[in-house]
Write a structure and sequence with these properties.
Elements lengths: L10 E8 L7 H4 L7 H16 L4 E7 L6 E3 L4 E3 L8 E3 L12 H12 L7 E6 L5 H12 L4 E7 L18 H13 L3 H5 L3 H6 L5 H11 L6 E7 L6 E6 L1
Parallel strand pairs: 1-7, 2-6, 2-7
Antiparallel strand pairs: 1-9, 3-6, 4-5, 8-9
Helix pairs in contact: 4-8
Amino acid sequence: MACGALKLRAMLVAAAVCPCPPLLVPEVAGGAAAEMDQARAACYDALGVLAAARPDLLCVLGPAEPAGRGPHSQGARGTLAGFGVPLEVSLGKGEPARRELPPSLTVGAWLLERTDWTCSPVEGLGIGEPLSRDRCQEAGRELAARADRVALLVMGDGSNCRTLKAPGYFDERAAAFDAEAARALSEADTAALLALDEELAYELKAAGRSSWQVLAGAGQGSDLAGKLLYDEAPYGVGYLVASWS
């Protein structure tokens, strides 16, 4: 599950947590682009925290279907053509890879391009949403051992069931699930993130659960402080932005 071989003397120095809907990209959202302005601004602020940490390696991770799971090398391409926009992005500068980035990492790569990321090499990791808590924790520890100073861009959404018009319809448990995830992210509480209920997250279609638990594994023992930058559900989907530094 790691982006590469392990190294000693390594630690997580910063993390940014961002939602991953293609609607975050104005060209995809079209006339509704302004509805995500605050979320985009919060994502840019979170990426600024990553840059300030001066990492040796940035790994972008997010949920992926089977074809997109596993490591993605620097230079891997992603496209939003499937969402009606002929827009292609690259995960940092490098030779194109054979495998295409999954949508979550494509949105992450788009954010990095918008902020002109040049602070460190960039790699990607697509994570299967059914991945167990223990495997997420293990993957996070491996990521934190990838370099002396590792930063993570963690893509993932909260519950998909906050309103009657939400893609997953309304579920009365959704708001409480998102609130606990927001609290844990705001406090960089790795134990609370690992305690998020896998089955409930699946029922609520919370695509960020596995990504957040990988972050928890990476952040254990790092003594980072968290800050919640955005917590809204504009389309009945919980979108959270947080920074750890």
